[in-house]
Amino acid sequence: MAKQEDKFKHVISHAKEYGYVFQSSEIYDGLSAVYDYAQNGVELKKNIREYWWKAMVQMNENIVGLDSAIFMHPKIWKASGHVDAFSDPLIDNKDSKKRYRADVLVEDYVGKLDTKIEKEVKKAAKRFGDAFNKSEFLSTNPRVLGYKEKGDAILKRLGQSLEKEDLADVKALIEELEIACPLSGSRNWTDVKQFNLMFGTKLGASAETAMDLYLRPETAQGIFVNFLNVQKTGRMKIPFGIAQTGKAFRNEIVARQFIFRMREFEQMEMQFFIKPGTQGDWYKYWKEARMKWHLSLGLGEDNYRFHDHEKMAHYADAATDIEFRFPFGFKELEGIHSRTDFDLKAHEEHSGKKLQFFDHEENKSYVPYVLETSVGLDRMFLAVFSNSLQEEELENGTTRTVLKLPAVLAPTKAAILPLVKKDGLPEVARKIVEDLKWDFNVTYDEKDAVGRRYRRQDANGTPFCITVDHDTLNDDSVTIRHRDTMEQQRVKISELKGIIEQEVSMKTWLMKM
Ligand code: GAP
User: Fold this and answer.
1) How confident is the model at residue 315 (pLDDT cuts 50, 70, 90)?
2) How far apart are CA 194 and CA 202, in angstroms?
3) pLDDT tens-digit profile of 64-79?
4) Interatomic CA distance for residues 173 and 106, integer angstroms
5) CA pair distance 342, 447, nearest whole angstrom
6) Which is the closest atom of ligand 1 to the Cα of 261?
7) Which distant-in-sequence residues (6+ apart) come within 8 Å of 456 by Cβ?
8) Rg (CA), the chain
9) Which residues 6+ apart lie within 8 Å of 498 measured at CB?
10) 334: Cβ below 6 Å to ligand 1?
11) Is any atom of ligand 1 closer than 6 Å to the C-beta of 335?
12) Which of 108, 110, 160, 465 could form a disulfide with 151 if both were Cys (CB 3.0 to 4.6 A apart)?
């Protein structure tokens, strides 16, 4: 655990030191669970967004984009169910006065059982060596099965209690599991209460006429209320999708874990409109498609898993999370929900307008069903960043800190380094920067010894360093160093663009899907 915590602290401090993420309003002592993306962070975030957008919109003929406003008519949130049902069950510890999400306390308890299972697997893998069969072990080892059964039973009960709004039972579960407050260590809990997560604000000049608004807690509703506009103007036929990226706001009470749970964050959502009755097949399709997208980034297959929901959100008939192994354990990265016709029907009722599709093949109108994929951009950022940050032992006994970001997402693709600051080498290096900057984000660096500059770029996540030396002046060749392998190659300046392109282009990476 201590090792995990250290790793996570390192992630946070590295993100600050290398200009990726800063605490918001830091000079005023910060604003909790709100963060700013710095010079490198903004590039990484933009690249992740673009990687998602291309995979969703550019590569799918029947998916189009949208950028709806953050402010929307307040009736939308009544129709969507957010006014009545978008709340978290909270519980306070009477000794520490600290407030927790009751469901998260229970889920963390189950997470510890998962960690125990992982330990058993590691022990057995060591004991049996090559003969070890992980899936057989997981399905037969009595201790593992015991932990699994216990975890499943707890989550099932939690799901059922939340579904029935039986908050007394959620408290009873916390007491039965003897969950203690991590701060005070006591089990002196208040009752569990629901708390709405939407931020309110006002639109209008005077207090009397101002209209109460909410900051949107998800981007999805902007898609639903534009469904017919897009369908008609884009002449879209079912099945088709609308994709959108943008800010969402939630008054998270238990905001922690850096950019994992923020009060202002960004979502990348896609609503796929389908014929009623086909949702089972499309649910399966999008589960697979989204997992393939994640795996294409090469962060390691073992770091992902599905977690099918027992407790559905108020709008879903089937739901799963794609979970990722963050530095603090497996947690939700993306949600895939079969939303039925809940949203469109609700907006029909509340707006009095029809939101139906006329199906020429069937010769009838219907309210489409919806399959949703929803991934947090900031969580993607944290997944990519934390997974990429590594301490490597080198052959000469030293260690290097390297940020092995997928090259397609790296903020800076190449650093151009003159070996020395004289003899005409800076001029050649500057010329290479001038040529490459039309195609890639590149940087020029002449300060310090070249070894130190390599280390700086490694820690920054730059996939290539290109060194200009005295031989360059005669043979138009440079040394290109690969961040991950540290291998160096001598290549012609004219070849640089092609070499970098091959490694960083979205096409190369998306083709792995
Ligand atoms: N439209 C469906 C929806 O909003 P959700 O599971 O509440 O579903 C989707 O959110 C995704 O948004 C999550 O999987 C997560 O990646 C991201 N997300 C949700 N709340 C967040 C928060 N407070 N901070 C950062 N990301 C968040």
Assistant:
1) confident
2) 24
3) 999 999 999 999 999 9
4) 8
5) 59
6) 24
7) 445, 448
8) 26
9) none
10) yes
11) yes
12) 110
